[in-house]
Amino acid sequence: MTTVSNKKKRTNNLFEYIYMVIMVIYMGQMTPVTSRMVSSISGNLFPFLLPIVASVFLWLRRPVSFFHRSFWIVIGLFFFWATLVINYYDSYKNEDLSYYFFLFYSIVIAYLHVQCLGKKFLPLYENVVVILAIISLVFWIWAVVYPTSASFFKQFEPTRYGNNVYFIFNWMDPTKDQNYQGLLRNSGFSWEPGRYSIILVLALLCNIARNGVKVFNFNTIILLIAIGSTLSTTGYTAAIILYIVSFVHHVSFKKSLLFFIFFIPSIVMISRLGFMRDKIEEQIQVETDLHQLEKSFKYNNETTDEGEYVGSLNRFSAIYFEWENMKEHPLLGYGRNPTNSYFYKNVSTNFVLTGGLVKILSQHGVIFGIIIYLMLLFSSFTLSRDFDELSPFALFLTFILFSVSYSIFTTPIFTAFWFYGPFRRRAEKTDKKERHKATLEELLKKERANYQFTP
Questions:
Q1: How many Å apart are CA 256 and CA 126, to the nearest integer?
Q2: What is the pTM (predicted TM-score) of this model?
Q3: DSSP of 320-349
Q4: Which residue among 66, 212, 430, 440 is buried most deeply as judged by most CB within 10 Å?
Q5: What is the pLDDT of residue 260?
Q6: Burial 128-159 (b: 16+ CB within 10 A, else e)
Q7: Alpha-carbon torsion 217, 219, 221, 227, what sign?
Q8: Rg of the chain in Å (alpha carbons)
Q9: Which candidate, 414, 396, 395, places its Cα nearest to that of 406?
């Protein structure tokens, strides 16, 4: 009986790892195929159905009830908002409705992640990312040390910035602007290095949640090396802030002050690294020259077919225009379809706005957007209660920093962390109460025993 039970447990563990590998690779969105979890219903059905079928199998192996009050509150809130937006913009075409399909799709998959996996969700995600990071580092080191390996990588399917090696490594082509002074950036299994870096930082958060701030830990070392290889300002900043809040969470005021005295000069030194300085200066130059942006919009609108994608704006430019979108539709937002936005209608149809920080407010309206951020804050506090090593603000601040550069809200794994608080298992919510109740009962029994045998 024990042998059968152990065999079933090993089978479940293997399936969960395979499942998480699928979800993490789709999270990277390296190619149109692995972007099918957040974008298009049309096209080849296999890549669209794969994560859905895998999630159904997860549910069958670890059945959970959908009669969960918080789940239906979240679904109800989004359904009410979506109904108002669809009616307001008269968005009844299949293309329009598909945007809302992926919204609810990500919420349901996120619910299954939290409910079916429970606290195991964090180490499972972390370990899968570490395994894939090791593979990526091997390929990246090979590409850096032996530039002649380019001929090998160019045999594979092209991506936006390089070539897709079996969906586990995206080699960055030196001619496509993803290198610094000849040093290739590591994009891992994602479409570009910055996006890969936030996936790594989230795994680092999981590691800190389980082990605390420990540098001499195998997973930590791999994740830090991988983050370093991305040469990403977003990844570096998020990792630094994560370590700051995690360190301060467990030390006294004096130790915190001493930490900052030594840590701030380190941050200054990192910011003075060539690629960091260049990227910061580039951002400042772009953001202060809106006139040049307007000229670029005008040129592309005149020389490009309507709606054809040309490029995406830099993060701070995107924030500026998302703010304009929010001012145009402060109550309901412009919805999931960007064609309803002020930017698309009045500025350019040929650019997309990156980043999700203000996008949450501009898409969903100010009031509902604030509610969504409050759910994230609640999840951040809940995660800290479940994992004492993690600061109550760690998840919240990390996701805010991610959102400056990338839109992460409806990518199922990110969504699972975002709604970790509302979706957490009821049993786990009552664990502490049950333990407290059991302790009181034991004390009462002892008191009765003492009373009965006292001479």
A1: 28
A2: 0.83
A3: HHHHHHHHHSTTT-S-S-GGGSHHHHHT-S
A4: 212
A5: 52
A6: bbbbbbeebbebbeebbeeeeebeebeeeeeb
A7: negative
A8: 24
A9: 414
